[in-house]
Write a structure and sequence with these properties.
This protein is of the alpha+beta class and about 140 residues long. The chain has one domain (about 10-139): Alpha-Beta Complex (Nucleoside Triphosphate Pyrophosphohydrolase), CATH 3.90.79.10. Helices cover about 20% and strands about 35% of the residues. The protein is built from 2 helices and 7 strands, in the order E-E-E-E-H-E-E-E-H. The strands form 2 sheets. The chain has a 4-stranded mixed sheet with strand order 4-1-6-5, sandwiched between helices. A 3-stranded antiparallel sheet has the order 3-2-7, with no helix packed on it. A hairpin with an 8-residue loop joins strand 2 (about 20-30) and strand 3. The radius of gyration is 15 Å and the shape is globular.
C-alpha cells in the first residue's frame, strides 16, 4: 500500500478593523489573484509561529505595527481547494485599531485601503469567509 504525501504550506492572515466599521484590505500585486483585494497575510517562515508571521506580514504589507499579544486568533482555514497554488492552511487573526491608524502599501501589496464593512469588493481566496467569521465574533 503506497501512501500519498501532500505538500502543505502554512500561512497567516489578519483581519484589521477600525472601531468605526472599516476593514483593511490589500490589492494583491502577485498571482494568484493579482489585482484582487485580500486580507494582509502570507507564509509562516521557518522557526516562526503563525502569530509572529501575522504581525510581520501586517507590517510588511500594510505598514501597521502590532505586537503579537494584540492579535486574537479567530480560526484555521484548511479547505483543500482554498488556494489555486496547492494546499494552504492559514491561521487567521483579528486586530481592532483606531480609525486614524496610518497605512502604507509594501511588500507584495500593490495598494492598501480601508474599506467600509458594509460595501466590500469581491475578495480573493476564502477571505470573505475569514472576514465574516472575524466580524461575527466581534459582536
Amino acid at each position: 500500500m503506497s501512501e500519498k504525501v501532500e505538500t502543505i504550506r502554512y500561512t497567516a492572515d489578519v483581519v484589521v478593523t477600525t472601531t468605526d466599521g472599516y476593514v483593511l484590505l490589500i490589492e494583491r500585486g502577485w498571482d494568484p489573484h493579482k489585482g484582487c483585494w485580500a486580507l494582509p497575510g502570507g507564509h509562516v517562515d521557518p522557526g516562526e509561529t503563525s502569530r509572529a508571521a501575522a504581525a510581520r506580514e501586517l507590517a510588511e504589507e500594510a505598514g501597521v505595527y502590532a505586537i503579537e499579544a494584540e492579535l486574537e486568533q479567530i480560526g484555521v482555514w484548511d479547505a483543500p481547494d482554498r488556494d489555486p497554488r496547492g494546499r494552504y492552511v492559514t491561521v487567521a487573526y483579528r486586530l481592532a485599531v483606531l480609525p486614524s491608524t496610518p497605512i502604507e502599501a509594501g511588500d507584495d501589496a500593490a495598494t492598501v485601503e480601508w474599506w467600509p464593512l458594509s460595501d466590500l469588493p469581491p475578495l480573493a481566496f476564502d477571505h470573505a469567509d475569514i472576514l465574516a467569521a472575524a466580524t461575527r465574533k466581534q459582536h
